[in-house]
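Pipeline run #58 for the internal structure catalog. This entry was flagged by the ingest filter as a single-chain record with no existing model, so it goes straight to prediction. Upstream metadata was stripped on purpose; only the residue string is passed forward. Reviewer on rotation: M.T. Logging verbosity set to normal.
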Amino acid sequence: MAKIYLASPFFNEKELEHVEEAEALLRDLGHTVFSPRENQLPMVEFGSFEWRTNVFRNDIKHIHWADYVFGIIGDNYDDTGTAMELGYAYAISKPVLLFNPSGNIINLMLTDSLHAYFEDWGDVAKYDFENLPILPYMKEVK
């Protein structure tokens, strides 16, 4: 099975619910998942320069480690950390799979960097993660 980097905001209850659902679903499908939510380096003072540096390096290391990146965008997808992770993955030729729970229209810089696009967990569960078929975003863009 695949090694997956999970890029997503997890700063409120709704975002956290989506991340936990993705972690569980992807692991139930047999994948190994690196979730930044679970890797916040609690032995280092949160927000300190040392924490920031180590979290950043750890996340980048795991984007390289992953076979692909599975991203979740929030209702207004304004999490710059997630956007950076998705863009970085695309730049180093990692396939980007994106889950958009709101189904809202998204920016073309996201839509045109995607390998596969989802709005329903059932479609994620049925996706062929071995062959990674292309599922483009076909809606209006911003």
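catalog note: The CA atoms of residues 13 and 89 lie 26 Å apart.
catalog note: The beta strands are 3-7, 32-34, 68-72, 96-99, 116-118.
status: ready for reviewer M.T.
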